[in-house]
Amino acid sequence: MKKVSIVINGQYEEEIGLEILQGIYAAIQNHGYTDVSVQAETVNQCKEIEIPAFLTGYARGAAATVGSERRKRG
Fold this sequence. Notes:
The protein is mainly alpha-helical and 74 residues long. The chain is built from one helix and two strands; from the N terminus they run H-E-E. Strands 1-2 form a two-stranded antiparallel ribbon.
């Protein structure tokens, strides 16, 4: 089984997506495949800020290491 994922973003994304799907269907027909699923979807882009995972380990300005806890001074 082969799964292909393509993400297109830009002014001509609909046209490019259509041409890609046409090419996929042509390739499928050339080889006589009948049991193939081709799906396309439009994904709404989030306008939120994403924080990279490597930055989420920081706490109160100090780097927190995995598995360690801050000890309270008493």
